[in-house]
Amino acid sequence: MMTQLCSMLWMASPALGGPAEFAFEVHDPDEREEVLDLHQLLFDQLNAGVVDMDLSQTVSTSTASAPSADGVSTIVYDGDGSFIDDDADGQAWRWTHEDGSVECDVVIRDEYSFLYDTTKSQLNLYNDLGIDNRNLGSLLLHELGHCFTLAHNAGDYNIMGWSYTHVHANGSELYYYMGEYAADGLVGVYDVDTSFEDVGVVHWRYAGNPDGDAYSDHERTGVYAMSGDELPFYVASVNGGRKQPTFLVRRGHLVRPEFTFENNGSTYQVWVDVDYLLSTNDLITKWDTLLSSDTLLLKRDSVDTKNGHSVAIVATQEPGLYSLGARISDLVDLSDDVGQNNATYVNIEVLANGDPDYCEGLEPCARFEGDCDGSSDCDTGLDCIYNEGTYYGFTPQTDVCDLPHGSFHYCSEEEPCERFRGDCDSDDECQGGMVCVDDIGAQFGWSAVVDVCDYPLGHVHFCSPAHPCGQGEGDCDTNADCAFGTCVHNVGASYGFASSVDVCDLVFTP
């Protein structure tokens, strides 16, 4: 007779053949229907899965006892944790008897708040309300994995690692599942249903084994810049970490979303078509906006997290919150017996040029893009120009990446300069009505050879309260347009202008 504890590493087992058969007695002091319903949901899924299984349950009204090799498989909800290790949320014992029969006892520490159905918003991983319901469905699958001879695994995204973060989500529903690592182990132990196929995609990935224990850590997948660096993201403060990250994406840019693809079926799958879509909500369907498509080969024995396919967020996309989704598309040459796990999403916020976070992150902003916080946020050769947002069509306090004022090539025919901007090379590089005035850069703190766009003397807009004229300059409208003296009307002919031009000058009253 052999006993194994959940906290022990399961060693590789020889093929057993035959089905996995367990008739569990369920001991739940609270006699909760939702617990039995969750069990049945999982049993039905496993019984219809990649290997031959026959799992069933009956309710026991007797008082539960500590796990023992008594020939009866049990699932016990232990309110005070007296039957399991102090640091365990669940534990499983697998007993092999002399007659070859197998028994499995599972104990769940029932002193936590658990989620008993598939409502995503009520799970602690997916809500911003401080709800701390733990993932009972995945915890049960983990313990059942031990019943099926599966060991802990610290090297992949898998149910036998940190099971709470092994779950599929799309829209408002969760889907609990064993996953590719478990499927690969099961087909080596039990009779295989060679007609069963299942490919899926999730928004979780392997996050290493920082604690050095027997469990792999998992975290949410990301969105990447074309440079290969992950884009910045934010989370609700109540969650922290990477729970429900929202990634900042610039419209008009290429990005690379990341998803984990799994083959949970019996054979290799070739020509698996994947659509990448943009949705206004977190339910990804074929009706969402198609951005791009890809074709994958999904092996039978390895979880595949991918972030190499690029999609374009169009320049006209309305700024706001979206979901960037992956969907295994309508299957032609591929059979798939499970439809619940064929699509999922990552959360993004599409930013417009000028938004406060637009230049935050790993890709510097190009010319005329903002808001920047410093020149390090801008492409090489550009400065972050502070508080001149209105010149670029933004709010006044927006800081914008641009060539330094007065630098050569600042003005062009494609981007003609406003007044007092330079360097210009011709009148065509200045906005309407202005001319390129040679070698006056020193007046603006630049090199003396810089040429600057300005209105010609006598132009109706040459003088203003913001830019008052000196003596003999015009056209002015009021005394406020003059740096000193007064605005003398209709004397332009005396100064070489049209007679209707008003000129700033000293006027002495006898």
Description:
The chain is mainly beta. Among the domains are: 193 residues, 3-Layer(aba) Sandwich (Collagenase (Catalytic Domain)), CATH 3.40.390; 158 residues, Immunoglobulins (Immunoglobulin-like, Sandwich), CATH 2.60.40.10. It is 7% helix and 27% strand. It contains three helices and 29 strands. The strands form ten sheets. A six-stranded mixed beta sheet has the order 14-15-23-22-18-19, with no helix packed on it. Strands 2-1-3-5-4 form a five-stranded mixed beta sheet, with helices on one face. A three-stranded antiparallel beta sheet has the order 10-17-20, with helices on one face. The longest helix has 15 residues. The termini are far apart. The N terminus is likely disordered.
Descriptors for this entry?
3 helices, 510 residues, mainly beta, Collagenase (Catalytic Domain), six-stranded mixed sheet
Quick rundown:
This protein has 510 residues and is mostly beta strands. The protein is built from three helices and 29 strands.
Q: For the CA atoms, what is the radius of gyration?
A: 35 Å
**Helical residue percent?**
under 10%
Low-confidence stretches are 1-15
- Main sheet characteristics: 6 strands, mixed
Mean of the pLDDT scores?
89
- CATH architectural group of the domain at 1-193: 3-Layer(aba) Sandwich
In DSSP terms (H or I, runs of 4 or more residues), the helix count works out at 3
How does the helix and strand content classify structurally? mainly beta
Beta-strand segment tally: 29
Order of strands, main sheet, comes to: 14-15-23-22-18-19
Identify the CATH class of the domain at 1-193.
Answer: Alpha Beta
CATH fourth-tier homologous superfamily of the domain at 1-193? Collagenase (Catalytic Domain)
Any idea of the CATH topology of the domain at 1-193?
Collagenase (Catalytic Domain)
State the shape: elongated
Strand content: 25-35%
The end-to-end distance, rounded to whole angstroms, is 124 Å
